[in-house]
Design a protein that fits this description.
The structure is a homodimer of 257-residue chains. With 257 residues, chain A is an alpha/beta fold. Chain A is built from ten helices and eight strands. An eight-stranded mixed β-sheet of chain A has the order 3-2-1-4-5-6-7-8, covered by helices on one side. Chain A starts with a strand and ends with a helix.
Chain lengths: 257, 257
């Protein structure tokens, strides 16, 4: 199976590196507007490379667009696509049907993880979510990624989109909460490392009991007097104060209903 | 050292169980309005118990008020306190000076962890933060808790308060984010366990690199088109939509400045 990539970023890099190790798979070509990145990845996976979309070689079996969610539609208008080959993207927020006017066989390979170019992805049990235009494409994509992980799942475009939103809350926003905590510690000359046992227990408890059952704190207890004192403490931090108030209200509301 | 407790909840239970194992320490009396809880804990630590504050025996060396932050001031008005004994509480949001009109020696023993009655606390490296009225009290409290953990620290009332707010963000609010994620998965028929590798990596990355450096996602990238699509997805979830918008704005603002 000849696989070509458009893109040379975090996901393209880790996916190409992993796929090339599968028997019978050959990474065919890397196309990326950034010449240096294209060349660098192409050398690692022993593929051709180019920085112009028009130079995409047509003789691939699978083309993977691993680019920013936003760039996909744009790229499609500039790329000559052969029919009867499978075309995929790796984006959480873009429907597979973005391809439907230019190919009969298309799909999505969505790895549910935060992936970095420079940190080798551990694929073994990492969920990869597949969406496909038809049964035979679904089967081919699933067979392929099963070589990477035991956690392959077929989902709809709508489910992948919901999962993407859920991932923003569980990953990006929970990290932002820790970031505010880090900032408050720094301002008050407190070593943020003191909080490590607490954040560790928080995460493990959520995993063990589910976050719904693991919730604790003044908002969960309905302890309005502590909440008010905390808001008073944050009076010179408008943004953090508003977030504290809204998040406490959210938790209180959740346990009332 | 004779130690008495007012309170029989999560912190009182785990602290009494741990302190009684120290050589030379005797848990003297447990006072709690809930007769059954008082008796139950007293039996476990071989102490007397009572449910009336007026029955506090005066011959203790250290009295620990391990009750809700709100209840401390109230309890003090009803309790006859002998002078020259050390009085402590365990609350994050109450200054040690709450005791200053009734004792010359007072302080705070604040364990920075979410503690449950029914789950044995692992004290070994759990931060315990000490505040004290004077050097000799500070020394006695520090010596005592050093038997429990190697992570004892002396901090001011102001620092403990800031730490308490920081802990709400890092623990309670990050858990609330995972709770929203869990809810969105349930509504869209997605197994929440799919997100486990992602939340695990999120937490480990924040610990390894610090949350400021670990931030990822559409808001961090300034990807407004994905943010808008996510907000559209949440259009029937007013609360979650507002949180999504405000948290994204917060992250964007943080990386702009």
């Amino acid at each position: 199976m000849k696989i070509s990539f458009i893109g040379s970023g975090n996901v393209a890099t880790q996916l190409a590196l992993a796929l090339q190790k599968i028997g019978g798979v050959k990474i065919h070509q890397i196309i990326s507007r950034d010449k240096g990145h294209a060349k660098n990845l192409a050398m690692q996976v022993k593929a051709d490379h180019n920085h112009e979309l028009s130079r995409l070689k047509p003789n691939f079996d699978l083309l993977i667009l691993a680019v920013n969610d936003d760039a996909i539609a744009d790229i499609l208008t500039q790329t000559p696509l052969p029919d009867n080959k499978i075309i995929c993207h790796t984006a959480g927020s873009v429907a597979s049907t973005v391809f439907k006017d230019m190919s009969r066989k298309y799909g999505v390979i969505y790895p549910l993880q935060t992936i970095s170019k420079n940190k080798t992805t551990v694929w073994k049990s990492l969920p990869i979510l597949i969406t496909a235009s038809d049964d035979s494409t679904e089967k081919r994509l699933t067979q392929l990624v099963k070589h990477l992980t035991r956690a392959t799942h077929v989902i709809t475009d709508e489910q992948r989109f919901a999962l993407h939103v859920a991932a923003v809350f569980a990953c990006n926003f929970s990290n932002a909460m820790m970031q505010i905590s880090q900032k408050l510690c720094a301002e008050n000359n407190i070593d943020f490392d003191l909080l490590k046992p607490l954040t560790q227990e928080t995460f493990e408890k959520a995993e063990r009991m589910g976050p719904r059952n693991a919730q604790t704190g003044p908002a969960k207890r309905g302890d309005q007097s502590v909440i008010n004192k905390h808001l008073e403490f944050l009076k010179d931090h408008d943004l953090e104060k508003n977030l504290y108030r809204d998040l406490s209200a959210y938790i209180q509301q959740t346990y009332r209903s």
